[in-house]
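Section 3.1 - Work completed
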Amino acid sequence: MSKFLGIDVGTSSVKAVLLDERQFIVAEASVALTVARPHPLWSEQNPEDWWQATLGAVDRIREKAPRDWLGLAGIGLSGQMHGATLLDRGGRVLRPAILWNDGRSSAECAELQRRIPDFLAHAANIAMPGFTAPKVMWVANHEPDVFAATAKVLLPKDYVRYRLSGAYVCDLSDASGTLWLNIAGRRWDEVLLEGSGLSRAYMPDLVEGSEPSANLSTDLLASWGLAGRRIPIAGGAGDNAASAVGIGAVSAGRGFLSLGTSGVLFAVTDRFVARPERTMHAMCHALPGRWHGMSVILSAASALDWVARLTGHAADIGGLLTKAEAFAADSTRVRRAPIFLPYLTGERTPHNDPSATGLFAGLTAEHDAAALAYSVLEGVAFAFADGLDVLDAAGARPTNTMLVGGGARSAYWAQLIADATGLTLDVPESAEVGAAFGAARLGMLAVEAGTEAELLAAMPIRASFSANKDLAWLKLRLERYRALYRAELTAR
């Protein structure tokens, strides 16, 4: 029976899963990574660490399932997006990769938009330090010798692909996060490249995420006990698109809400949609003829962690959630709860405001840890409601939404988000299916192990949360929430 390997090059670890033809997980492994922060706002990793972690994860898979490993037929890749990995003409890394959460390149964002007057028409996204282009411009401005030696710019997973195969290739979903891609046309954009001081020669080739991109190198085939074989590597996907493939969010109207450290609302479309002025991310999906709109909030479960530490519940977040639910059961008290703005690290959608701050409004002496915890849960739910409004305005509102991430374990929070957004949220049996699983599915498609309909079925549902109808009081609180941000912005 054929087996399929999915590799996810994350920020905190490289994860690998080995699937069989029925998509049962035969073996999985994870190798931790560290992030270097040598200066304020900087966030970097050594690409060699990704490679060594990949080798380590594969070695563990081979140790756990040696016989199954010999059936390897295809590989898929996913990874953290936006990271700038600079290589010279010999394929050697020139400096540590600048990661997605690096904030040093704000000036370059403004510079890029000045250079290209119709920037939004080309990029479909506003320029932010998280994207790849301003990072490379920062290198040009501050490390000119490194920039002069640069011959190729790769994203993290594509550097691993290069080490696996020797090929320079990127998929369209990951390329969407560079600010160099024509999202509607699914091709590199010469105007965006020129505005960044680059050309097409610096870029890898482009493929769809479900297409073959390269083959595993002869040297690796020999060292991994697979000599004489031909093992294709799929184009793969950025981490969110790979996660969508993993849960079956692959057709128009489907999407997911990820309640993790940050929050993501992801909606699949069958056409290009954009709202850059409201900080919606417009990107290609990992499959041909599909795109996605994405709203991002920067503090989701991390806001709950914060209030738990603040109130002495860091070791008992479950207990704090129980207290918050009990507080909300009193209809009089919950209507008088503080309003919380969850902008503890700024905000992305819809404000694009790195200076936005968190706020409790309406505190009284009667409010305790339970009241604060409720307000935090509600504030995050309202942030998702704002993100949904942006998708709605773009014509990308999801009609079928999976709830995933660590926060999905709280049924109360799931219901509160459903109430605040009006979405029906379906929790899959495995709400934390990772990007590596979706990558393995793309590996199956690349070798034609089945059709999309056969291989990309949605996960079975274990719970579903629909919005309650009598929620006029919650809508009033949402209006107050939005007014608070406007007032705080005016007061700056």
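Second construct:
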Amino acid sequence: MKTGTEEQLPDDLLQKRIYFIRGQKVMIDRDLAALYGVPTKALKQAVKRNLARFPPDFMFVMTAKELENWRSQIVTSNSEKMGLRHKPFCFTEHGVTMLSCVLSSERAIAVNIRIIRVFIRMREAVTDSREMRLKLELLEKEVGKNSADIKSVFAALRQLFDPDRPPRKQIGYKNGER
């Protein structure tokens, strides 16, 4: 059974608001405040009143350099500061979970549940991909590499797992060429 919040917040909308900063998946205060239906200032004040609940692995403040890099990568706003006048708070998955203790409105709780489910699905997708890659490697070892047909099947499967990698350019001397 879907709640009204689930229908209003599709997974792809939430995934677009998850950024990769300091090697972690995070959501920034501005996006979370909009999702919870509260002003960013109110969200930050609630967090500041409860700082003991937000250790560095739950929440951190973006540095000026990180903010500059982030702005250059996310070019969706026309304004120079992208609507940000202050360095944003960045919340990890655990920090988002902790926000449900700080912001206890019905909407905040429902949105939190959706966000956590998206984080979980993203983690499962990465895990599933790793498991499939390991199974593929084991199968390749068992079957062997004698048949050209089998080689082409494994090459195609590898390309499915690593689509971002362009084919490597061959370098060096080739027979009959100079």
